[in-house]
Structure to design on (556 residues):
């Protein structure tokens, strides 16, 4: 028995040692693998992970700089945001639906209006039955439009015509802004002696129902430049608010970003940084100090040079921004600051922050009137959006809902879409530098050639449809081959909408102290983007026309 125990004991001990050594080896090997991964792995920036969907829409990052994708420019009205605010009660209008129309008809029945066919032979445009007929016709004809309010119809050019104006918005636009159309309708007599629409005119055809123009002899002048009186969009109010009294300034709390390395960068970069600052101001419950002077990157200028002194209001809706965020224009802010400090021993309390590494969370309880972030470090340390990196991304939400495109640009979008009666398809054709770069996009040039486009579009879009082409291709006649199958529309077909006789030209010139404003590359892409989104069928370059990846080879 003892011999048996002595013979088996060393075997058990050896087995235990063997298992222990094996486990230890596995542990060491696992640690080694983990160490290698930890050294070589490059984790994604947490600020990108905080809003991945919006990041894909607006930006891409690489080593704290941006790869500009300037072919599509999205802003807050283009996306549905979970945290987007509700429509302000003052702006809320119940849309005109079939139910609303039926209630109007009930009221008309109670009026006991005569329905003798002889009485309807000559159309009385103020007859409420005329308006009901137009409302029902529009509701059935324009499926993508939300009709908000109508004006009483007025007489057209003939006895059986009426001009009708209304306000509306497009269902594909996520903003609550209203637009205006006025059309001429020809009426006939239907069953039971009721009105019906025999013919409806096109966009802005009902000229008698348009809003009154200024008197033609009241031209404005600015130096040697004489401006035609603009019709104007009475809903645009992008005036700069004042701070009021010195005491009002002292009661406020401000976040002031000094100009950093973002200036004159691409517009996507600018937006990403601007909304970081605005988001921090909202987190700190402070008023954000805004520099309305924008430097437009050379990317968007025909001269291929950066252009300073552009007004924020040329591109974005300042009125909407004022409604949803607390902002103050920089010169007004500096004026109030200077007034308060003049002749006073007790100056305005200021907290200077010289590095983005001081987080918003650290400033949350600061009681200074002004938090002044300064960005004097070399690039990329002096980019505003660095403030929202790291842990700050968990606390700072970029307020995309606050940033809409300029209402003046959106009026051009509405004009173009309206002239096509909201019944059009669109193709987004990306060419330019990407088509020339065969290393990153080897097939793009061939896949977007006129012959290839025509072959592909025949599979996707019915012939003789209105086809809007949103593109960065500079040659207007490049798409002529498509005209054999489609009614082709390009942005340059609508140059009159920003010509020196246009509403846009007059209003932006007045906004720019009497100096004409160029309809630049950013404005072109912004308008192209919005018309593209209103199409019934939308064909994309990198999803429908080519197998190349949007961001270059091997990035799909």
């Amino acid at each position: 028995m003892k011999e048996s125990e002595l013979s088996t004991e060393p075997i058990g001990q050896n087995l235990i040692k063997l298992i222990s050594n094996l486990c230890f080896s596995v542990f060491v090997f696992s640690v080694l693998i983990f160490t290698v991964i930890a050294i070589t792995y490059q984790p994604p920036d947490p600020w990108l992970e905080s809003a991945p969907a919006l990041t894909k829409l607006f930006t891409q990052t690489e080593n704290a700089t941006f790869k500009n994708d300037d072919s599509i420019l999205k802003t807050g009205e283009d996306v549905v945001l979970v945290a987007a605010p509700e429509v302000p009660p003052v702006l809320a209008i119940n849309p005109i639906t079939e139910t609303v129309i039926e209630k109007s008809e009930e009221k008309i029945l109670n009026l006991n209006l005569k329905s003798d066919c002889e009485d309807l032979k000559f159309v009385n445009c103020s007859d409420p039955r005329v308006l009901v007929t137009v409302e029902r016709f529009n509701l059935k004809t324009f499926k993508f439009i939300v009709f908000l309010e109508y004006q009483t119809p007025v007489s057209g050019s003939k006895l059986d015509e009426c001009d009708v104006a209304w306000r509306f918005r497009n269902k594909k636009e996520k903003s609550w802004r209203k637009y205006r159309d006025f059309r001429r309708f020809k009426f006939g007599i239907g069953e039971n002696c009721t009105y019906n629409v025999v013919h409806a005119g096109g966009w802005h055809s009902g000229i008698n129902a348009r809003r009154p123009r200024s008197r033609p002899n009241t031209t404005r002048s600015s130096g040697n430049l004489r401006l035609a009186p603009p019709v104007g969009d009475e809903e645009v109010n992008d005036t700069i608010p004042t701070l009021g009294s010195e005491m009002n300034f002292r009661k406020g709390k401000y976040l002031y970003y000094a100009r950093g390395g973002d200036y004159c960068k691409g517009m996507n970069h600018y937006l990403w940084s601007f909304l970081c600052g605005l988001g921090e101001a909202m987190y700190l419950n402070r008023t954000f100090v805004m520099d309305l002077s924008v430097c437009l990157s050379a990317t968007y200028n025909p001269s291929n040079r950066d252009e300073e002194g552009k007004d924020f209001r040329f591109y974005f809706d300042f009125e909407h921004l004022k409604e949803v965020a607390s902002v103050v224009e920089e010169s007004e802010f500096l004026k109030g600051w200077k007034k308060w400090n003049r002749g006073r021993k007790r100056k305005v309390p200021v907290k200077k922050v010289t590095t983005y590494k001081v987080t918003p969370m650290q400033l949350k309880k600061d009681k200074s009137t002004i938090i002044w972030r300064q960005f004097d470090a070399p690039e990329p340390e002096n980019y505003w959006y660095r403030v929202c990196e790291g842990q700050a991304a968990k606390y700072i939400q970029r307020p995309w809902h606050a940033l809409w495109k300029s209402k003046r640009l959106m009026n051009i979008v509405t004009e173009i879409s309206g002239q096509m009666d909201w019944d059009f398809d669109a193709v987004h054709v990306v060419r330019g530098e990407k088509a020339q770069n065969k290393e990153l996009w080897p097939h793009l040039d061939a896949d977007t050639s006129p012959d290839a486009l025509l072959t592909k579009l025949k599979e996707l879009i019915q012939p003789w449809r209105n086809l809007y082409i949103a593109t960065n291709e500079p040659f207007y006649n490049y798409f002529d081959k498509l005209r054999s199958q489609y009614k082709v529309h390009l942005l340059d077909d609508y140059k009159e909408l920003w010509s020196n006789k246009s509403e846009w030209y007059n209003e932006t010139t007045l906004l720019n102290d009497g100096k004409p404003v160029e309809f630049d590359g950013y404005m072109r892409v912004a308008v192209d983007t919005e018309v593209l989104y209103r199409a019934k069928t939308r064909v994309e370059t990198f999803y429908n026309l080519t197998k190349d990846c949007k961001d270059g080879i091997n990035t799909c």
Q: What stands out?
A: Confidence is low (pLDDT under 50) at residues 1-8, 38-67, 214-231. Residues 124 and 130 are 8 Å apart (CA to CA). The longest strand covers residues 179-189. The chain is about 35% helix and 15% strand.
